[in-house]
User: What shape does this take?
Amino acid sequence: MLLSSCYTFANTQKIDLLDAYSLAVTNNPQWAAQKANYRAKIKAKTIGRSGLLPQVRGEIRYSTIQYDGTSVDFDLSADRIINCVEGVTQASVPTVTLGNALDGIECIFTSTTSDFANSSLTIQFSQALFRLDRWHEYKRSKSLSTHAKAELEQAKQDLILKTAQTYFNIFKAKAELNLAKSQLKALDFSLQLIKRRFEKGLSKSTSVHEAQARYDNNLGAIVLAEAAVANTREALANLTYQTKIDTTPLPQAIPLGMPNPPDMQEWVETAQTRSIEVQLAKLSSLVAKHNFKARQGARRPSVDFFATISETNSGGTTAILDEGRTSNRSFGIALSMPLYTGGLLSSQEQQALFQKKESLFILEHIKQDLEHTVRTQFRLVQAAVRRAQAQQLATNSSEKAYKAVEKGYKIGTHRITEFLDAQSTFFLARSEAIKAQYNYILETLKLKRLVGMLDEEDLRTLNSWLPPISKAERLHNSRNLKNTLPEYQDGFSTLTPQTKHQNNSEILEIEKDPPRTFLEALRKWMQGQ
Assistant: This one.
């Protein structure tokens, strides 16, 4: 296996957010499976269209015939007649006449046993002239192909979100680890200060024990923070299939901003038209609609043009088959209509009708649920911004309080518990501020994903907040970061961070003006509409 269960991160290579996404696009097998699934499903359009195009079928047969029976031989020479007709001699039949030929007619049929070869070539041509079921099957297959396109777009946006979440989770874990180490350093300083005061008789032994307990407890927090860093880095390695990679250094600051546009209703309306989930539900409804019409069309008359050409070569002669070649030509128009199928067609039509109704109910449910979810997520983003701003103020305030209490403790105006509590409050506020910043990033990305607006441009924006990677590191990365799934790189145009985002509303192809007659529909199809 490429990835072992135990990860070592010595001599890791620094990659930025766009590098992580590019590696995920290239190496992640789940994304490769999505691409393969897309390529398989878009063939539905070609498969559905084939029923409307001419059908040509060829057949070649070769066989050996064993014949035991009557043979036909029309050789009525004088010798044959002499041998066949009783009382006829050479003298009486110098030449063949009509009379003695009729007398020897039984010589035409003789018993024989023979083996000979027989071969045939048949070419059959047919063209559907009027088949409503096949027309709607074609429309259904077009919707299925578009559905596959929407599924791929959904998978791409999920990959973008997962990449950003995985990458920034490392930042969050690192920041908390650094904070735990800083707190440990501060606790160690406090512990040494308390010990010196205890030695001078300025504090009690309980103060030393309390400070020591907080120091030891923080050691456990560092162990958990180190495990969190290792786990998040392993998640990035699993996403990109690169074992020795790491993020860039922690960003200095993360810009905060309210959702743009600021109106919640605009986000709801955008989601109703651009959300991938709504697109998929609409396409599923369209598939069910054409499936129902196809089942209806199966009960209607169908008209086909047909033509058949066949050639047969026989190497022997029997009572019913002459040696040599025979040819057959036939063509015409066939009209057919099912009269009774044991309830099959009517049951399929009713089944398709209920499936169509089900898809419409599901679409309505998704729209209603999406509106509620978008409103909730919009408020979460607003709350994340305000919380991050509030936590930054809390951090500044708690830092001032911590320094004031520390000074008071040194001069004896504050107790040890007040000092340690102020210290803990300060580091807790810093921890919450870090969480609030990264929470803001993820909540914003989730909102964009809900409305179908998440694309590579968002990754570029986030990447601009990170410290840049030097040219030497990039050169080193280009030599060491390799594709791990070469079998998947088969010429398929993969999505890269430079791919221009496509408006999701263009994915859905709804018939705004459906054809009223079959001939009109055929004309639109031939024109590529």
Remarks:
- Confidence is low (pLDDT under 50) at residues 1-10, 488-502, 509-513.
- The longest helix spans residues 132-199.
